[in-house]
Amino acid sequence: MPAALELVKKLISFDTTSRLSNLALIDFAQELLEQSGARCRRSYDASGKKANLFATIGPDADGGYVLSGHTDVVPVDGQEWSSDPFAAEVRGDKLYGRGTSDMKGFVGVALSLAPEAAKAKLKRPIHFAFSYDEEVGCTGVSGLISDLVKAKIKPALAIVGEPTLMKVVGAHKGGTAVKMHWHGLEGHSSAPHKGASAVMMAGEFIAALSQIGVELQDDQDPRFDPPYTTTQANIVSGGTALNILAKEARIVWECRTLPGRDPAKVVARAKELAETQILPKYKRGAPDASFDITVTSTYPGLALDPDSPAVALARELSGANAVETVAYGTEAGHFASAGIPAVICGPGSIDQAHKPDEFCALNELDACEAFLRKVIAKATQPSP
Ligand SMILES: [Zn+2]
Predict the structure, then answer these.
(1) For residues 371 and 336, is the Cβ–Cβ distance under 8 A?
(2) pTM, whole model, 2 decimals?
(3) What is the CA(162)–ligand 1 centre distance, in A?
(4) Which residue, 32, 63, 196, 352, is most buried by CB atoms nearer than 10 A?
(5) How many angstroms separate the alpha carbon of residue 372 from the centre of ligand 1?
(6) Average pLDDT of the segment spanning 268-291
(7) Pairing label, strands 248-257, 230-238
(8) 69 C-alpha to center of ligand 1: Å?
(9) How confident is the model at residue 306 (pLDDT cuts 50, 70, 90)?
């Protein structure tokens, strides 16, 4: 078994950008885990080109600790990298490459400890949960969790190794992604009253979304930064020529909700503003002007549970006094919703995630290795 750093580099060499298959990486990880005697299960997406891997070392019993990470990474398209993002390299005291922090650093370190877990006299199982499609709305892990429910596998808790600089994070926001397709009516742009520009409608909608963002600031939870639910549009397209009223426009937007808040209410408010404030104006020139709205993914937030055994374990083993909250989403909300208490603790910083020249400090990987060794040691002790 290669050492942790070599394994992290190896995992990064698989281009598992979310739009691609992750099967080569999953095959590789499964083979390594099976060499340590792990019992493995897979759950596939509809295309069969992506899979989650769930592996167990130790007794065939309820309980045990899940080490959870996603295998997919965000695209490098349009980013300026100083080195090949898929050929990780150490420069100074940092490892550079796509996924070093988010989150092949954690997955590689966890994988490197499989032989140690196999040799330890585990009283409770150590599980490895490696998912697909986390970066496109935490959608893949749902299949893994429903497979566990079906197979009646009941881990005691999950440690999700998203980059927290090895701090203990006990709560995060939820997230919902929405696609909107605006339909206008083509015409000469010199006569906007005789048609409807879908691009103009989409633009007004984006302004409405920022109005909703202001409304949402009335509901605050100071543990989060920012302390309120946010809305953002970050993809917009439409139109064919400057002098043609645009027939089509598309927007992809999201809301990031404080835990416990219902994203459907935000979507309903957006729809209401679109129907009452935007469409009527454009229907004067184009009675058929309309929009379609589709929620493409949604994942729950993770509410801070002061009695969470996952948080307690992570605090005990890391020595952390504080339990932090983060604004970004993780698979922890899905685990917790399925009755598996979850905590987030992993190497690297979210500040490096998704950026060119993503890196993870080598001492973060070392700290992660030490932490996970303690998790394995804990599983050799009798249940509390
Ligand atoms: Zn991530």
Answers:
(1) no
(2) 0.89
(3) 5
(4) 196
(5) 18
(6) 97
(7) antiparallel
(8) 8
(9) confident
